[in-house]
Amino acid sequence: MRSIKYLYRIAFVCLLVSAIQGCNDDFMDRFPLDQINDENFWRTAQDLELYNNSLYPIYINGFGYGWADGSVQPFGYNISSIAYGDIITDNAVPNSYSRVAANQYNGHITGSSGSGGWSWGNLRRINFFLENYQRGNVPDDVRNVYAGEVYFFKAMEYFDKVKTFGDVPWITEAFETNSEGLYAPRDSREIVMDSILLVLDKAIAYLPQKGVEKPGRLHKDAARFLKARVGLYEGTFRKYHSDLGLDGAKYLQACVDAAEQLMENGYSIYSTGDPDKDYNSLFAQFQYRNNPEVILYKEYSADLNLGSAFSRYYAQNQRHQHGATRDLVEEYLCADGLPISQSPLYQGKETLSDELTNRDLRLRQTVCDYGEYALASHVQGSNNSPLPNIPGLSGNKCPTGYRIAKWFIDSVSDWDLVTRGQQATPMFRYAELLLNYAEAKYELGQMDQGVLDNTINKIRARVDMPPLSIGNIPDDPSLEQKYAQYIGYVPAPVLREIRRERRVELAFENTRWDDLVRWKAGKFLEIPVEGFKFEQERYPTVVVDRDVFLSEEGYLRPYHQVLPEGRQWEDRQYLFPIPIEDLVLNPNLVQNPGWESN
């Protein structure tokens, strides 16, 4: 009988979740939320856990599941967003150019209501839980744990909404299709962001300490990390988008406070003492339960046949057939801590191997040299040896020649069967927390050598890079010229190096777009997209001006034909548009600036 009741609850929660997923009018007419009133549900902790289990794959999604072939809207990259998100930035480019990065996005015109990220079904699930979770006779300390999980998810949902659209409605109800609240105007950024901090504080209060939580579930440290990330984003966004007239100091302080709590909790930078491999191996593991750097992760279960095809298709370079940009590669320092324009160690750009020699060791653990990170030869299109598979060769393309080594896992058993992809995903890691803290401390005017030693220099130590000294910041006229030309301001040397460290350490972890947006640095996307220097003798069958196109210096130019003027940035791109159909349905909504006539 107990098993039957358990199966009944699973079936009911599936029905319940299905009933509140979206705004399909026919379905909602048959199963309105006010008629889902099973007296046997919401009564036990097991019921609350079952309900929340449907939210975990949405927000703690790792590399996705199964074929992992969905896409994240409105951005257009693969659902394994942590690895692919950089393809819309200046860090990487796909073989077929990103319409978002090229300022050609038109999803608000072609998409229907609720498309392009302007969807509220997940929030409806969240609010439905918050309206009902106290109905049962569950002890407060137990049910509050599940409420803490949902508050965490609500913060994630709204943080993404604000980053994408700016002002959005702050919704506290699980609306029906005829609710007047569906026609509410957008609330101000101030109201929504303050509300995000409030629900994060609730999550921190309700969630268990790390180490006490059930396996695979949230804990206080995850909520503190998210608070630090939110605080840095909003604090710097308000500073560099000064036209908003909003003060970001309290958000920067929220970042600092949350980070300091985590910095006292025993985390450290992962290292086995092998600087030539440790950075790369951090992202090629099957579990992170005992990893001192990883605060929140997603693991997969072979026993339950739950896996992701990420490893298989990432290794074969199929999802976006992408490559790193020359601009990213050139920002890595040399092994002596100096920029390439200043260091005597720099070997030049004549060959890929030259570029990777005597550099920050993270570079060659992020970008493949000739013959490195090659998979078994029987996997079609996967072999990077001896040459990156540039256009003009058969198989899947790396348009810049800088093929990505980060996230590579050399395990046939992991990617041979789609549903057994077991590569785990580190979602929140301590290195980012230290970078968040360093930047927030600088922006608050609280930077000193002690801050650098406890943050940037701990990260650099993993790869034997020289520590950063606040009184001896190396000059980098080339990078400063890029800031002046494209962005219109030049950051102070310490901040410039914090930003460099962030770009290098977090490359291909889907942070770059957010960084460009909050720094108001979107015009970096106008830097010409280039790859490595083409060597005809290495590619005798590749024909220049047919298969590949080159700059005057001989570097690959992936978009020479399709984007002859390069990618163009407009400041409207800092926010995405609301679908036109939603503007028609709700006349109280106002389109974001610059998108009104499109």
Automatic annotation (TrEMBL):
Q: Which Gene3D superfamilies match?
A: 1.25.40.390
Q: InterPro entries from the entry?
A: SusD_RagB_dom, TPR-like_helical_dom_sf
Instruction: Give residue ranges for domain RagB/SusD.
Output: 292-595
User: What are the boundaries of the signal sequence?
Assistant: 1-22
Q: Which PROSITE patterns match?
A: PROKAR_LIPOPROTEIN
Q: Where is this chain's protein located in or outside the cell?
A: Cell outer membrane
Q: Any idea which UniProt keywords this protein has?
A: Cell outer membrane, Membrane, Signal
Question: What family does this belong to?
Answer: Belongs to the SusD family.
Q: This chain belongs to which protein, by name?
A: RagB/SusD family nutrient uptake outer membrane protein
What species is given as this protein's source?
Belliella marina
